[in-house]
Amino acid sequence: MFRTITDLFKRKPPAAEPLVLGLEAVPGWLGEQENSIQGELEETTAPVRQQITDALHDIREAVRALTSVSEASVAHPRLKSISRSALPEFLKSVGQAVEKEPAGETEAFYSTAADILKGCIKATRGQGKYLQAAFPEEMKEFRSGLKNLGTGVNRMTEAIAGSRARLDEVLKARDVHQKLVRGREEYAAACEDADAMNREIASGSDELRRVDEELGTLATGPHHAEAGKLDLRIDALSERQEEIAREYTTIRTNALHVLRKAEKVMEKNLDRTTAESIRQLENALSSRVPDADAEITGLLTRVVPAALDVVGRREVTLKNREEQHLFSDAKVLRSELVRVISLHREVSAELDAARAERASLAGYAEEQRLRERRETVQAQVAEATATRAADRERAAALHEADEALREDLAGRLGALAGSEAALQADDLPVCPPAEDCE
Questions:
Q1: Same-domain pairing of 170 and 234
Q2: I need a surface site. Which of 77, 91, 185, 395 has the fewest CB within 10 A?
């Protein structure tokens, strides 16, 4: 009962004031924390530095004593022999180690002291282990100084490790702050890009409406009905042109199959002149229907009789009815090609004339220009819409990351301050909505 009553009157330590920082004040506060941590390290390690300095003084005094020791003071002959070989090496190793002088900032001082400690330990575990029996008092003084040096270095190791850990937390907090600021800049840029796409889409949509209105007006013009009739004629002629081209391709494919085999026979029989003529005919029979037949008919006059000759001697076999028809007579292949080429030329001329007539209609050229413009603007609007979607998706991801980074930074600031921390930062503005421009 008495303990309960006394507990009620116990004063609780006052809670640490919560840390409240604006986003722009974070870098300065973190800089102050860095300076504070470094200052605390200097203050904490000041007595340790003195301990290390005193220990080094003791070690050097012990080394000085070992340097002036007389061999006559060693009683046992065997110990004299050991000391004679081990002592110089030991003094050399320790002398090299302790000739350095720790100085400067804490980290530099610590690094030098640690190197001295390593050198002395190495010497002690080497030649020094043989000197304990020969020079017990001097080695006792040396080991005492070495122990004090080790204790000082260990204390400084702990202090520096703690300081480094805290400084590392400062660096992590600074990194989170930079990510937060950079993310907010990228968010603003993404929203600005999305808004620019909104304006581009709106402008394109307005232009599409104007183009559609103009096309609607032109559709009532006198040229439109006549253009429609010509469109039907042009479509029919285009289809007929394609049919003739397919027929030409069939003839060409079957003829080339036989001609290439005939060419190989001519090469085999060393008739290179005829073989070259066949190659020229093969090149003339291009993949597209030629405009004229003069070159082909001249080559056919020279080549077909030779091809029929090797077919007749059964050096070339005709594989299907089309090949048999085309090479049944010297005139068949020529007449078929001339017929198809002439027909294609006639239909192409009619098609060109129909297209020219349509292009000459009043209003037709303007209608075509508007249709082409409409396709271009539609493509631009589609591209802008896709870009806007990507910008808004990027902005949404950055908005989500902003909340996580703010929470992370507040937690890190609180850990460094040893209290609750609140980060004062404006909420990110909402990106302009896409539906406003649809």
A1: no
A2: 77
Nearest to 93 by CA among 130, 125, 61, 69: 125
pLDDT digits (tens, 9 = 90+) for 134-145: 677 878 888 888
27-75, pLDDT tens digit by residue?
999 999 999 989 888 888 889 889 988 999 988 888 888 777 645 454 4
Instruction: Say yes or no: 208 and 230 in one domain.
Output: no
User: Cβ(290)–Cβ(284) under 8 Å?
Assistant: yes
Distance CA 103, CA 46 (A): 12
322 inside domain: yes
DSSP symbols for 9-39? HPPPPPPPPPEEEEGGGHHHHHHHHHHHHHH
Q: Which two tokens stand for residue 323?
A: 């090949």
Q: Which domain holds residue 163?
A: 16-219+414-438
Whether 371 is covered by a domain: the verdict is: no
The helix-helix angle for 77-98 and 106-125 (nearest 10°) equals 160
Residues 108 and 149 in one domain: yes
Q: What is the mean pLDDT of residues 314-325?
A: 88
Q: Check whether residue 231 and residue 208 sit in a common domain.
A: no
Ordered DSSP codes for 330-397: TTHHHHHHHHHHHHHHHHHHHHHHHHHHHHHSTTHHHHHHHHHHHHHHHHHHHHHHHHHHHHHHHHHH
Both tokens assigned to 158: 């702990």
- How many separate domains does the chain show? 2
Please tell me whether the overall predicted TM-score, pTM, comes out greater than 0.70 for this model: no
| 386 pLDDT tier (thresholds 50, 70, 90) | very high
